[in-house]
Specification:
Elements lengths: L23 H18 L6 H8 L3 H7 L3 H10 L16 H17 L1 H16 L1 H28 L9 H17 L11 H11 L8
Helix pairs in contact: 1-2, 1-4, 2-3, 4-6, 4-7, 5-8, 6-7, 7-8
């Protein structure tokens, strides 16, 4: 969590083996087919054979470039152009307002039926495969968490929030709540659903907070 970059890491993205030329057209077809099938049938019913048939390639082609179903799903979900809100909280006003705007943007992703289906698919894959879990962390969770912590550090320097607060714990509370909402298949998430949580967290961060408030 020490990095401050806001761009997703690509350190773990699968690469073709030496001497094998990777067909970009096939790669795009495989990832598109994976996204389509995730939307239609979910992660549990997804298979490499089904992806291959939809993409018009052989299963060996998929296995040549991805070691597991989970890794295909991770790339399909996380490599899509702007699949999720990956920007850090803005620096456009009071930190409370900036964090609320950031959390609302994330909540819109988690409330969208197509995007939340992809989130569920990649989290299911991550629960089965440590390499996929690492991809999810590096390319989604860490990007969000680092940007959030960096914004709070700037707010602490400006005297807006307590410098002794555990910024990572606050980030985990927000991201973890949204992930819970998605994986629990809660259908009642709205953008405003995060406001009650934010009210509690932001009150605890305020620099002018005194005991008993």
């Amino acid at each position: 969590m020490s990095q401050s970059s806001n761009n997703p890491s690509t350190s773990g993205v699968s690469r073709p083996s030496p001497g094998r030329k990777r067909s970009e057209a096939s790669r795009i077809a495989i990832l598109a087919a994976t996204r389509e099938l995730v939307a239609e049938q979910g992660y549990e019913k997804l298979s490499i054979g089904g992806i291959a048939a939809r993409a018009g390639v052989g299963k060996d082609t998929i296995y040549r470039w991805w070691p597991s179903k989970g890794m295909v799903v991770a790339d399909a979900v996380l490599e899509e152009a702007q699949p999720f809100h990956l920007a850090p909280p803005p620096q456009s006003g009071p930190v409370d307002e900036d964090i609320r705007a950031w959390a609302h943007a994330l909540a819109r992703d988690f409330a969208d039926p197509v995007r939340v289906g992809r989130i569920r698919a990649v989290t299911s894959a991550a629960s089965e495969d440590p390499a996929t879990a690492e991809q999810l962390y590096e390319r989604f969770t860490q990007v969000q968490r680092t940007g959030f912590i960096d914004r709070l550090r700037l707010a602490a320097e400006a005297g807006e929030v307590r410098p002794d607060a555990d910024f990572g714990a606050v980030a985990d509370a927000i991201l973890g709540s949204l992930m819970y909402w998605a994986t629990a298949h809660r259908a009642d998430l709205r953008v405003e659903s995060v406001d009650s949580l934010l009210d509690v967290l932001l009150r605890g961060l305020r620099a002018d907070r005194t005991d008993g408030q």
